[in-house]
Amino acid sequence: MRNDQFWSSGSNCIPAILNTVNNLSEDSYFFAINMKSHWTWCSESARRHFEISDAYVEDVMAALAKQVYPEDMEEYNWAVERRIRGEDIEGELCIRMKGIQNDYDMFSFHMDRYRDPEVGADYILWVLKNENILPDFDALTDLYSKTKYQSDLERVIQETDGCLAILKIRIEGFNTLNIIYGTAFANHVLQEVALAFIFKMDENSAVYRQDGEKFAFILKHCSRDSLIAYEQRVRQILSEEIYVEGQHISLKISSGAIILEHYRGDASVVQSQVAYALNHSTREHQGNLIIFNDEVQLSRHVDLDLMKVIHQSVRDNCKGFYVEYQPVVNSKNSAIVGAEALVRWSMEPYGKVPPGMFIEWMETDSSMYDLGNFVLRTALNDIKPLLEICPKFFINVNISARQLERPEFRGAVLQMLEETGFPAENLCMELTERCRDFPVEIIRKEVEFFQSHGIRFAMDDYGTGSASSDIVMNVPMDEIKLDMSFIRGIQENPKNQAMVKSIVEFANESGMSTCLEGVETEDLQDYLRSYGATWFQGYYYSKPVPITEVEKLLRSQDG
Ligand code: C2E
Ligand code: MG
Ligand code: MG
Known about the structure:
Layout: H1 3-6, H2 14-24, E1 28-34, E2 40-42, H3 44-50, E3 56-57, H4 60-65, H5 73-84, E4 94-98, E5 104-116, E6 121-130, H6 146-159, E7 163-172, H7 174-181, H8 183-198, E8 205-209, E9 214-220, H9 224-240, E10 243-244, E11 247-248, E12 252-261, H10 267-284, E13 290-291, H11 292-298, H12 306-315, E14 321-330, E15 336-347, E16 351-353, H13 359-362, H14 368-383, E17 394-398, H15 401-404, H16 408-420, E18 427-431, H17 440-452, E19 456-462, H18 466-474, E20 479-482, H19 484-487, H20 494-509, E21 513-517, H21 522-528, E22 535-537, H22 547-558
Parallel strand pairs: 12-13, 15-17, 17-18, 18-19, 19-20, 20-21, 21-22
Antiparallel strand pairs: 1-2, 1-6, 2-3, 4-5, 5-6, 7-9, 7-12, 8-9, 10-11, 14-15, 14-22, 15-16
The chain binds ligand C2E and magnesium ion (2 copies).
One magnesium ion (MG) binds at residues 340, 398, 430, 460.
C-alpha cells in the first residue's frame, strides 16, 4: 500500500506530520485506520514498539492482538469494535500489552474519527498511550514528579561537588482533611502548598511531589546549617501561610533528610535512607527533623551502602530475609484468630533491619516481586501446621504493586497454594497506599481474580492518603485496616474518634471487616471495644515474633 492509495486527496504529507507529532510524545503510539479500505497506517514509534514491519497493515487488530495480555483480550476486542463503530465508552479503559522488552505495559486508548470532506473517506486516529511511562510533572500540583525526582537525584549525585542535602517531608494528619472535607478540598490544599513551594525554587533547590502528601527537596551546595534553616522555613510556610477558599489551614509536618558529601553512590540507597529518616521522625520524634547521618552515628553502625547489600540479598535467593508474625485478635474476647506476616532482614555486621528502612524503596524496584513471593511462600509454609490447632486461623500477607502488575503473579500464587496445600480462604492479601501509581481498574481485575479463588483482600493503612479511599470505593475489598496514626492518642482526640467511628460504620454497612492497628495497652483495648471493629492488632497482644512463638501463644490459648 502506498501513501497516495491510503490517504485521500493525495495527502502524502500526512504520515510525515503524524510521525513528527508522535516523535514528540514519548509515551504514545499513533495509528490511522482507513475505514474504506480497512488498512491501517502505523507511526514509526508504534512500529518500533510493537515490532510491526510495514507502515501499512491490513489487519492491525490481529497484529496488535498478539501483544495483548490474555486476560484483557475480551475487553480489548470489545473496546476496539465499539470505538470503530463510533460509539463512546464510559470510563477509563486500560489494557496491558507487550512491548519490545517483552514486559507488559499498561495502555489507555484514545480514538478520534474524522471525515475527509473531499472524498468522503472516514479515518480513525487511534492513539495508544503507555501509562507506564511517567511524566516529569505531577498532574495535580504542577510540581516536578516522583519520576523526575529519581532521575534528577541520580544526575545531581554524579555532578555535584561538595555538599548536597535531600529533604523529604510529609504533611501529618492529611487523612483527616481528606475524610472530613473531601478529596477536592484536600487536593486544593496540596495545590496551594505546591504554589508556595514553587516560589522557593532556584538554581540550587528543586521541589518534587512524592506519593500522596509527601514532598522532596534536592538542595545543592547546602550545609548542615542551611538545611536546618531551610526546613524551618518550610515548616513555617505550612503552618502559617496556607489559605484555601479564604480559610487559613495550619499544617504540621514530619521531616527526614540526609547530607551527602562527595557521595557518588547509588541514588536508590539515598532514597531509602531519607525515607527511613522521615519514618523515624513521624514515629519516634513527633515530626521533628531527623537527619539520617546523625541516626547512623547515634544508633547502629549502618553502612551508607547498606541498601545495596539488601538489594543483593534478594538476588541471592533472599538470603538474610526472614518473616515474623504479629497476632491479630478478635476485638470482643482478645482471642488470637490470625496473624500478619512481616518481613525482616538481618545480616552481620548490620544486625536486624526493620522493613521501614527498605520496603518503600524496594517497592519501586522489580526485585520486590521475588521478595514479596518469598514472604508469601514462607508464610504459607509456616502457618499451614497451625491450621491443625486452629482451622480458621488466617494469615495476612502484604502485597506490593510490583507483584500485582506481573501477569505471572496469578499463576505463582495459585501454585504456592497448591504446593503448600494451604486453603485460599485462610489467606488475606493486604494492599497499601503505595499501590497508588497503579490504575485502580487493574487493581480491581487482579483482586477479583484472586477473590474468585477464595483469597480475601484488605486495604492496609486506610486513611493515610487519598488513594486508599479511591481503592476502597472502586475495588470490592473484604477488610479495612485502620492506620495506627488514628489510634494513637485517640482518647484525647475527638477528630480521630469521629473518624474511626465513621470508617467502622461505613465498613460494617458495606459488609467489610475492620482491623484497628496499634493497640498498645489494655486501657486502649477496653476503650476501643465500643467502636465495633472486627479485629485488633498491636503490641499489647504481641510484637511481631517468630512462628514458634505464635504456635506457643495459640497452644496456650487453646489449652
Ligand atoms: P503494616 O503492614 O501496616 O504493618 C504493621 C506495622 O506496625 C509493623 O511494622 C508492626 O511491627 C507495627 N506495629 C504493630 N503493632 C504496633 C503497635 O502496637 N505499636 C507500634 N508502634 N507499631 C506496631 P513493621 O514490621 O516495621 O512493618 C512496616 C511496614 O512494612 C508494614 O506496615 C508494611 O507496609 C511493610 N511490610 C512489612 N513486611 C512486608 C512484606 O512482606 N511485603 C511488603 N510489600 N511490605 C511489607
Ligand atoms: Mg500490613
Ligand atoms: Mg498497616
